[in-house]
Design brief:
This protein is an alpha/beta fold. The chain is built from 15 helices and 18 strands. Helix 3 runs parallel beside helix 4. The radius of gyration is 22 Å and the shape is globular.
Length: 541
C-alpha cells in the first residue's frame, strides 16, 4: 500500500502490445469540485499534456521499434540500450526451463522468432532461421517473464520519486516483464485520458510492459464509481483504490458486480481506518518500545472479513493486496471453502522481515500494512508453501528522503539494546513518515531465498511471480506456450550479490534490505522478443 496521491504526498484481453498505447490522447484531471487538491491536479495536467505532446512528436519522427513483439533484440547492451544489434530470432540453449502452466521443468531449448515463442524442445533439436542469435543458458533458469501485480510508479504527479521510465527500467532489472501500476497518482488514474498518458509514456521506454490499474472510485474518494467500461477500453486490466479502503459497502458490492461483468478482478486494500488511525508500526512490543501508536492486525482482518462476506456470490473475482498476518490467511482459506472467488498476494518484506526490523532501519522499514510479529511471518511463509497465498507482489513504493523524514530521524536508528523510546518529536516524525519501500530490484532475490531454504520449489516460485499474476491481469504471458509473446526471464539462481541502493534503476533508495546478501537474480529480461535488460553482456552470440 501507498498513499502518495491520497494524502497529497503527491493488454488487454488477447494481444497486449505496445502499439495500443502509441496513439494516446492527452490526459486531463478528474471532474469534481474545484478543491485546492484538484487545482494542483489541473496544474499537473498541463505538464502532462505538454509531455504527451512531445511524445507524439517524437513518435512521428521515427518508427516505433518496439511496437510489435520482437522487432529486435539487444546483444551485449544494457537496459539503457547500448550495444544493440538487430536480429529477429533467438535460440536459448540448455537452460532449465520452468513453465508451470505447461507442467515443464527440464533442460530444454527455447526458440523465439519475431517476438513470439516458436518452439520449446529437447536440447539440440532446434536450429532456427539463418540469422538466429544464440544464448547459452546452461546453469540458468529460463522462465516466463515475471509479472508484478502491485507497483506504484508515481507518474503522473511525483517525478522526484519515480517516473514511468525509471520504474519500468527498475522492473526490467528485477526480471519483470510486466507490472501493474496503481491508480494513486496525481491526477488519479480514474479517466481514460490518464490511462492513455501512462501507456504513451511506457511506449517511449524499451523496457517492461506497463499494465494500468484503474481507480475503483473517482478521485479515490469512495463516493462515486469510475467508468469501468471506458477504463477497460483505454487499457486498464485491474481495478483498485489501493492505499484507501472503500468504506461504503453498497458502493463496493456494486463495484464487484460491474467489474466482474467486464471480466476483470478488483484488488482491495484491507484496512479499518478507525482501528489504524495514527498508527506507525505494528501494535506490540516494538510500538511500545518506541513510544508510538501501533496498528493492530485486527485493522486488516476486520475489513477482510467484511469484504469476503460481500464477495460471496459477487460477479468479480476479489484479490486481497499485501496480506500481512496469520488471521488474514485463515480467513482466505475459510472463504474459499465457502465458495468465494478470492486470491491474495504477499510482499517480500512481509515474508522476509518482522516488526523488529523497524528498530534497525527506522522509516525505511515503515509501510502499511506494517511489518508484523515473527508468528505472523511464519504463518505467511506457511501459506506461501501450502498455496493459500497465490502470488508475490512488491508493492514497490518509492519515496524521497524528505518523505521518509530521514533528517528529523537522523541518529535514532538502529535503536541500541536497552534504549528508551523516541522523543515526542521523533515519534511524531516516524508516524508522519511516508509508508512503503522500493522492491522491484530485490523481490526476485528474496523470493529465491524461499527456494534455497526449501520453503517452496522453483516451479512454485515461478507460479507465484509469473503465471498467477498474469492470470489475475488477464495477460497472455505467464507461460512459454507456442506463439505466445516472448516475455522471458533468464535467472542465475546461485549468483551471490549485495543489495546496494546506489545501483538501483529506481529513482528512490528507501529499502530495509541495503547491505543484505542475496542469492540469485535476473540476468536477462526479454519483452516481446526484445532484450530490455542484460545483466551479463556477451551472453548472446
Amino acid at each position: 500500500m501507498d498513499r502518495a496521491a491520497c494524502d497529497g504526498d503527491a493488454v488487454g484481453k488477447g494481444k497486449a502490445r505496445r502499439e495500443e498505447a502509441c496513439g494516446a490522447d492527452r490526459p486531463r484531471a478528474s471532474r469534481g469540485p474545484d478543491t485546492p487538491q484538484l487545482r494542483r491536479q489541473k496544474h499537473s495536467d498541463l505538464a502532462l499534456r505538454a509531455r504527451a505532446g512531445k511524445a507524439r512528436n517524437a513518435r512521428r519522427k521515427r518508427a516505433h521499434a518496439s511496437a510489435r513483439p520482437g522487432d529486435r533484440l539487444f546483444d551485449g547492451g544494457t537496459d539503457e540500450g547500448s550495444g544493440e544489434r538487430r536480429v529477429t530470432a533467438l535460440l536459448i540453449r540448455g537452460g532449465r526451463v520452468i513453465d508451470p502452466a505447461n507442467g515443464v521443468d527440464a533442460a530444454l531449448d527455447v526458440l523465439i522468432v519475431d517476438g513470439r515463442i516458436e518452439e520449446v524442445a529437447p536440447p539440440g533439436a532446434l536450429s532456427g532461421p539463418a540469422d538466429v542469435a544464440t544464448l547459452d543458458a546452461a546453469g540458468y533458469w529460463v522462465v516466463p517473464g515475471l509479472v508484478d501485480p502491485h507497483v506504484h510508479l508515481r507518474d503522473p504527479g511525483f517525478p522526484a520519486k519515480e517516473t514511468i521510465s525509471s520504474g519500468l527500467r527498475a522492473a526490467a532489472a528485477g526480471g519483470f516483464t510486466a507490472v501493474a501500476a496503481m491508480a494513486n497518482t496525481s491526477p488519479v488514474n480514474d479517466t481514460p485520458e490518464v490511462t492513455r498518458y501512462m501507456l504513451a509514456q511506457a511506449c517511449e521506454v524499451r523496457s517492461a510492459r506497463l499494465i494500468p490499474v484503474s481507480a475503483v472510485t473517482l478521485g479515490l474518494r469512495g463516493e462515486e464509481l469510475a467508468d469501468y467500461e471506458a477504463m477497460a477500453a483505454a487499457g486498464a486490466r485491474l481495478f483498485s483504490d489501493d492505499g484507501i479502503p472503500v468504506d461504503d459497502q453498497v458502493l463496493l458490492r456494486s463495484a464487484f458486480d460491474q467489474i466482474g461483468r467486464l471480466g476483470f478482478a478488483i484488488s482491495l486494500h484491507e484496512e479499518d481506518r478507525d482501528l489504524s488511525a495514527g498508527g506507525a508500526v505494528n501494535a506490540g512490543e516494538v510500538s511500545r518500545r518506541l513510544g508510538v501508536k501501533g496498528v493492530p492486525a485486527l485493522a486488516e482482518t476486520m475489513r477482510i472479513r467484511r469484504d469476503l462476506a460481500l464477495a460471496l456470490g459477487a460477479e468479480a473475482p476479489v484479490h486481497l493486496a499485501h496480506v500481512s498476518c496469520a488471521d488474514s490467511v485463515a480467513l482466505v482459506r475459510a472463504a474459499r471453502r465457502n465458495g468465494v472467488s478470492v486470491t491474495c498476494e504477499v510482499t517480500p518484506h512481509h515474508f522476509a522481515l518482522d516488526e523488529t526490523a523497524v528498530l534497525r532501519f527506522g522509516p525505511d522499514a515503515k509501510m502499511n500494512p506494517p511489518l508484523r510479529s515473527r508468528e505472523d511471518v511464519e504463518a505467511l511463509r506457511g501459506a506461501i508453501a501450502d498455496g493459500t497465498i497465490d502470488m508475490i507482489a512488491t508493492d514497490h513504493a518509492p519515496h524521497d528522503p524528505a518523505s521518509k523524514n530521514l533528517e528529523a530521524l537522523a541518529g535514532c536508528f538502529p535503536v541500541s539494546r536497552g534504549a528508551t523510546g523516541l522523543s515526542e518529536e521523533q515519534a511524531a516524525a516516524l508516524t508522519r513518515a511516508s509508508n512503503g519501500v522500493v522492491g522491484l530490484e530485490t523481490s526476485l532475490g528474496l523470493a529465491l531465498g524461499l527456494v534455497h531454504e526449501g520453503v517452496i520449489t522453483a516451479a512454485r516460485m515461478v507460479e507465484m511471480m509469473s503465471l498467477n499474476p498474469a492470470r489475475l491481469l488477464r495477460l497472455e504471458s505467464g507461460n512459454l506456450s507456442r506463439r505466445m509473446p516472448a516475455d522471458v526471464t533468464i535467472i542465475d539462481p546461485n549468483i551471490e550479490w549485495t543489495v546496494d541502493p546506489a545501483k538501483f534503476r529506481s529513482k528512490s533508495r528507501n529499502t530495509p534490505f541495503a547491505g543484505m546478501r542475496l542469492r540469485g537474480k535476473a540476468m536477462l529480461t526479454i519483452v516481446g522478443g526484445e532484450v530490455v535488460y542484460d545483466g551479463r553482456p556477451g551472453m548472446i552470440s
